Structures are given as C-alpha cells and as structure tokens.
Give the backbone structure.
Amino acid sequence: MRESAAEATLAAELIAVMVAANATAPRILTVEDGRALPSGPFASSHRSLQSGLRAWVEERTRHPLGYVEQLYTFADRDRTSGGTRRAISISYLGLTREAPAPPETGASWQDWYRYFPWEDRREGEPAVSSSLIAPALRAWAKTAPAPWARRERSERAAIAFSLSGQAWNEEFSLQRYELLYEAGLVPEAGAAASAARAHATSPAPSLGTPMLHDHRRILATGIARLRAKIKYRPVVFELMPPAFTLLELQLVVEALAGMRLHKQNFRRLVARQELVEETGAMIAETGGRPARLFRFRRAVLRERAASGTKLPLLAQPR
Amino acid sequence: MRESAAEATLAAELIAVMVAANATAPRILTVEDGRALPSGPFASSHRSLQSGLRAWVEERTRHPLGYVEQLYTFADRDRTSGGTRRAISISYLGLTREAPAPPETGASWQDWYRYFPWEDRREGEPAVSSSLIAPALRAWAKTAPAPWARRERSERAAIAFSLSGQAWNEEFSLQRYELLYEAGLVPEAGAAASAARAHATSPAPSLGTPMLHDHRRILATGIARLRAKIKYRPVVFELMPPAFTLLELQLVVEALAGMRLHKQNFRRLVARQELVEETGAMIAETGGRPARLFRFRRAVLRERAASGTKLPLLAQPR
DNA sequence: CTCCATAATGCTCAAATAGAGCATTTCCGG
DNA sequence: CCGGAAATGCTCTATTTGAGCATTATGGAG
C-alpha cells in the first residue's frame, strides 16, 4: 500500500503560539506589528520539530520556553495567498512568562482578546457578541439556499455562541472563529466573504483585529487547546511567577478561560489537588487582608501522572 | 521575525492509524504483512491533508472512513533509516468498522495487542510485563551513570508501568513504548539498543511484534489518543455496528482500554448520558437472558456539544 | 422436566465531589 | 475608630462515583 511514486516536495514552516498571562489578560507573542505569529522555516539542521521550534524562539526572544506541545499541522491548498509552492505549517503551543521582547526583532506581546473580543466573558456577554455577531449569524443562517442548510447553520451558530440559552463553552473558540470565517464576518475570509455576504445589506463589521494568512485561526486553535488543557493538567503554573497568591492564580485562569470562577470553590479545588505549597511569605499589597504566597508543587508532575479517569473501572480482574 | 531565507524542501507523507474493533480485540489496518501502517505521499492534488488521507485510504480499502482526526506530525532526523531526503510524516487516527481488506492491496487487519502485549490488562497483568519488562526496566534504571539519572529512570518506569503499586493508567501507552525504546528493549531501537543494553547480560527479549521505521511509536500515539478520547467523546460508536447490545459495547470499550469495567456502572453511565436508544429488537444468542439491542443516538453529537467542565464556574458575573 | 450457568436488569448504600453562600479575620486608608 | 477589600474557614445540599446484592430470562445438560 505504500506509494513508491515520487513524493510531493514542499516547504515546511514552524509557527508558534507563545502564551503568557498576567492578572488582566492572556498575552501572545506576535511579529509584524501584531499582525502575525512568529514563524520560521524548519531547517534541516534541526534535530526534530520541537527542537527546531525551541531553537529559533529562544534565539529570538532570548527567553527559555518551558512547556511546549505540538498543536496542529495545516496544509490547505488555499492557505498561502498566491505563493508559488505549497507549504506545510506545523504549529506549536508554548507557555512562558512575559519578558520584554527585544525591539530589534519586531516582536511584541499582545492581549489575545484583541483578536477575539467575543471570547472574553469575564464581564458578561460583550457588546460585540450580542449586537453584532448574533444578528449577523442569524442573518447568515437565513441566506443558506436549502432548508436543511439553514437549520444546520443556525444550529451550529446557536451551539457555538450560545444563542439559544445554552451554557457558554469557552473551549469552542476555534469553532466560533470558523463560523465567523464561513459567514464572511472576518476580513481574512477574503473572497469567500463576498459570496457569504451576498445578501447582506451592510459591510462586514469589524470583529477583532485581523491577522495575516490563517494566523488567527491558528491562534484560535491554540486558545481552544489551552482552555481545554488547564482543566486536567497543571499547566497554568508555567504562566505564573515563582510565588503567587491564590487570587493571582485564579485571575490568570479566569483570563485564559474568559470566565469568572467561584473563589472559594476554586481554592478548594487547588487545595484538594495539592497543586501548591506555601512559601511561608505573605504579601500585603492586595487591597485587603494580606495573602499567603504559594509556589507550584513540582512534585505533582511526577505523582499525578494519573489523569482523571472517567471509566467505571473494575477493581479486580473478574 | 519571519525568516525569508530559503526554506527547507522536503517530502511529506500521510500515515494512517485505522482502528476497528470487535468484542475480543481492537484491530488496526496494516500493510507489508503486518509490519507497517498504511502510508502514502501527500500529493499536491489533495485539497487538504485530511482530504488527501481520506482519498487514498478509501481508494485502497473501498471503505468509507467515518471519524478521522489528525494525530501528530513526526520529523525527527533519525526517523528515516538512511533515506536520502528528510521526510515529514503527518499521522491521522481513523475509526471504522472492519471490512475484509482487498487482498491485492497487501493490507490486513491485526490485533493491536500483537504489537503491545503489555497493554492488555483485561486478564490482569500479563506475564510479559511482570516477568520480562519489570525486571528489565529496573536493571536499565540501575545502569544510568549518574545517581539522579538512576532515580529519574526508575521513577519514570514506575509511573508508566505501575511498578510501585500505582494504579495502571491505560493512557500512557506512548510513554511506555518510549521507555522500552530508550531501554533498548524493542528491536526498533537499533543502534540505541546496544548502548542502552551495554551492561545487560541477556539479549533483548521479544516484546511484541516490531514494525518498520517508527510505525509502532505512531501506533502507540494513536492508542493513547483513542484511550483518552473515549472517556469524554462518544467516539466508540464509530466502531460499533448499527445495532448492538450493551455488553457488546462494553466489550469494545474494554478491548480499547485494555481493562475491565464494572458492568452495572458502565450501563448507568451510558444511560445517564443518553448515548443510545432501544431499537425495539432483542437478541437471544447471548448465552444468558436475551439482551435488548440499541443504536447510537446521533443527536447527542449536536446536543452534547458541551463537554465536561471542571472549572468551578461562577453563575453570575460578579 | 428440573437444575444450572450465564447474562440482562433493577436497585441500594455510602463515600466523594461539585455548586452556592454565609461568616470571620486582617490590614489599609481615612 | 470605621468602612472597604480580600483572605480564609465552614456549612449544606444535590450530584456523581464506586461497589455490590437481588431478581429475571434463556438455553443446555442431566
């Protein structure tokens, strides 16, 4: 079954979604004045994909990146806008702490909600969502030619954006972006947009800052992955300073998830899982009662190799 | 930050981990007499990676593949054994039902535990694990030069193979294979093996059937992904016939997980999530009381877009 | 024809978790 | 000394798990 025919020859690039976070917002490393994600060629000198990525990100940001995982590989034909050769992009998600980007590199850290304003629900549903997106998607659903397509569109829109009273699911960031793309509501859609908006009366509203190529889609993929991951792996700590208060930790998680959490229950969760230990120090600049400082208990990375099982296991082999 | 230097040119191949299952064992589609996973070049005629994969798998197996998802992209330099050019392999996980493989294609379905005998714990710990693997890994840990390396090795081995009383985690199939590879206990390790076993007195024991290149590693990746996925997405049903009994469903899940499940609790789980509905028919050839036949409720794919939240959400924005 | 092994199904009970909130404590800035 | 803002401690109830017992149906063996 293996083809011995000549294999296609193409270019491969590595592309990084580097995430940092502070109490206010998650931040991502960008280039080109915030319009692109950092990317570089996959050179043959690299031992592996991941080491290739580490090499050039660290070279450019002079900043060790802690946690790195492969995100997704993209290769749709219409990815490159008029490029000569087909390219494969292998994307990675990396977690670090924000350090000033060396200005000569053209790199800068940006609030990720700048690109996805509808993803931030910490203060409730943002205006852009209720006033622009919801009506635009409903209109888009109506313009489908076939009845089943209309139903399919409105159903997808309802699920992704909780249009019919469903609970908001913060992990659907990719589906939401793809829906806006299909509906021609983001400028990246380009040609597709005109077709999708054929029946629309108004021009495309501005939904967040666009990016070059499909970088915003890749970023949405990274957001979805990270939002899912923080729930079952202690990766948030890669984004935290060595010592932090529980409120600081909660604020970072809230920033990533784009949702508010119940303070006492959040603390109980962290405590029960023994994710942190006290440093012994306190910090007073909290605006209220001084808070204890904690550090991540690195040991859990070894101990709790075990993830949460959901299968009703049988204790004894029957 | 974007490099404008010439990008590396390389070949890309698609490689499939096609999984089916019966009540006894999960099965995977292989070529080359069971020694390789089906793979093919990523041709420029393909619209996207996924459509390229679908195209040639369906062409060869004449079999529609239902669920397909991207697995991982491999590109380590020492992947290809002496190949001329560097290759990138983009692997996919696909779920189907087993259909006789057209013999002219050289394809065949194989029990996946043939390649990973230590992964099947349905009848308790298999002999190969306790009698071969455990002692070999302990010995390997001892041969590390530095004390910290010895501790690191034995700790990793203990977690992956539950050597110190930890609960077995079926999702660690990849880590287990990688450990055996590092320890030179699988023939694929090749050159690395001799170094790792420098101090061993006996030759490498035979641990499962080997595969060409790094295909067994890719298969282990697929197993890990599938074992994790069945816990939070209703993907098992892609492997089931149109109608099935609850025991059949359970046996397939057990085959995939390599572990026994508690029957009543498994049924309760399926019932509570409303994953299935009765067909109305019964089947008598069960060896006991006749069983009801069920079918998958496809509607859940839309309804239950919501996955399980673990974050202690706050109902009202404060 | 009865007994039995094998499953399918129904139910129960206790322990562990998750969801919501109330109550106190402690420090800061008037 | 007082009010505001957080940090912390606890409580209470509703679910969800983990383990098992009990009952019901069939086919086959004696």
